[in-house]
Amino acid sequence: MASTAHHHRRIPVFDSIYAQAQQLEPLDIEASAMGIRQADGTFSPLPDAIQNILSSVLDSLVRGETIGLYKIPDELTSTSAAELLEISRPTLMKWVREGKINSFKIGSHNRFYRKDVLRLKEKRRQEQLQAFTTLRALDQESHIED
Q1: Which InterPro entries does the record associate with it (predicted)?
Q2: Per-residue exposure over 22-42, b if at least 16 CB sit within 10 Å of its own CB, e if not
Q3: What is the value of pTM for the model shown?
Q4: Are 76 and 111 in contact (CB under 8 A)?
Q5: Which one of 17, 89, 100, 107 is most buried, by most CB atoms within 10 A?
Q6: Percent of the chain with pLDDT over 90
Q7: Domain interval for residue 38
Q8: Cα angle at 45 between 21 and 36, to 5 degrees?
Q9: In CATH, what number is assigned to the domain containing residue 108?
Q10: Rounded to the nearest 5°, which phi and psi values hold at 42?
């Protein structure tokens, strides 16, 4: 039977690194193109998703925050899924009963597929963005009528 070894790498971040990161604060990291400069001098831009992760890490360093990166497992407990969705576990279980998100059982415990949780998280983000856009448009209309 083959076993899968899980490797964890811890990288200590000292105060001197936080101090150096704080010097980056005035930079517009979001607008920067991050990439790798090869030995021959060619520049290879990083994919957007990786740039977003690195931008978040730099932002956390600037703020002096603790940073933790982890892989989200394929199957999540109800507690982990609720945390990822930034909702309470009872709300998550209500959504299961309403059919808003799929779950499956292992014994008596509900589990969730990562893809389903991330899909719902993105859907909620889009709905919140749309609601904000609508609210902002209504606010601008009310100021025009004043």
Answers
A1: DNA-bd_dom_put_sf, HTH_17, SinI_DNA-bd
A2: eeeeeeeeeeeebeeeeeeee
A3: 0.63
A4: yes
A5: 89
A6: 49
A7: 15-63
A8: 60
A9: 1.10.1660
A10: -75, 145
